[in-house]
Amino acid sequence: MGTGQKGNSGxxxxxxxxxxxxxxxxxxxxxxxxxxxxxxTDVGSGIEAVVARPDTAVLGLVNAEVQIAGxxxxxxxxxxxxxxxxxxxxxxxxxxxxxxxxxSDQLYSIRDLYRENPAANDxxxxxxxxxVGASSENSVLIEDPWGAIECHLTQGTRxxxxxxxxxxxxxxxxxxxxxxxxxxxAEIPEEQVDLIDRNEALPPPMNTVAAVRQLxxxxxxxxxxxxxxxxxxxxxxxxxxxxxxxxxxxxFIKYSGNPPALRVGERxxxxxxxxxxxxxxxxxxxxxxxxxxxxxxxxxxxxxMTLRLEGSTHNTSPLRASFTL
Length: 325
Hints:
Layout: E1 3-6, E2 10-30, E3 36-42, E4 45-53, E5 65-76, E6 82-91, E7 95-99, E8 106-108, H1 110-116, H2 118-121, E9 126-135, E10 139-143, E11 148-153, E12 164-174, E13 177-187, H3 209-213, H4 217-220, E14 225-236, E15 241-246, E16 249-254, E17 266-275, E18 282-293, E19 300-302, H5 304-310, E20 319-321
Parallel strand pairs: 4-6, 8-9, 11-13, 16-18, 19-20
Antiparallel strand pairs: 1-2, 2-3, 2-5, 3-4, 5-6, 5-7, 9-10, 9-12, 10-11, 12-13, 14-15, 14-17, 15-16, 17-18
C-alpha cells in the first residue's frame, strides 16, 4: 500500500503489515458507521484498533487483556517518530480475550504508583484517592499525602479545589513522570481518603536536597517522602521539569499539571517522592507551596579544570565561567 500525507505534523504510513499483539483495552465505543474503536495500551503507549464488523461483546472488553490481529497503519513525524498507530481489524473473530478484566481495580497511593510502576508492569486500570489540587475541563490534579499526579479525563468535568475524590484510570509513563489516562472521577467522603496508608508506618520526609542526592539507587527507588524549601533556578513548562536549589545543593524535579506558582526565582516548598532518575536521584510527583519571589543565589566562579574535576558530582548550583577561545 502507498504512503500518503496527513496534515502538517506527520506522515501517514500504510504498510499493510499484519500484526498480532497482546494489549489492554482502555476505552471502547462505536462510531456512526457501526465500527468499534478500541483504545489500547502497551506499556504506556496508545494504539487504536478499528473493528469493521464488531459484535456486542466488544464494548465490554475495557480493562481486559486481549490478543488482536489486523493490519497496521501509523502516523510518524519528520524524524520518523510514531505519533499515532491504528490497527485495522476485520471482525470480532480477530480478537481473543487473554485475561478478563479484574473483578475490581486495585487501590494505590501515589507513592505505591511510583514504587511498583504498574504502567510498565501491569497496565490495568487502578484507583487513587486524594484531594483535588487543580481542575480543568480535561484533567484533574489529584494530591495525596505523598505527592500529586495529573489524571486525563474521558469526560470533562470541573471539581472544586480540595474536594475529596477517587480517580479510576490507566497509568501511563512519560519518561520519569506517571499520569492516569481515560480517567473517571467519583466524589467520596473525607474519611475514606487516607484508608490505604492507615496501617503503614510513614517514614519521615527528607528535608534537604543533599539528603536526596546522597541516596543509593536502590534507596531512591523506594519513593521516599521529601519536603524541601528552596528556589526554582530553571523551568521547562513544555516538558514539565524544573531545577530546584536549597542551601545544600540543586536537584532535578519532574512535575504533573500546570501549577501557577512555577516561575524562575520563586521560592517554594516541595512535597514529593524520590526516584533514582536516569543518572542521579531526583524528586517526582511534587506538590508545591508558593512562598513568594526570591533572589537567585550568586553563581560560583569556576575554571575549565574545575569543571573537568568536579563534573561527575552532577552539581546543579549556578556557575559563572569565562573562557578564552
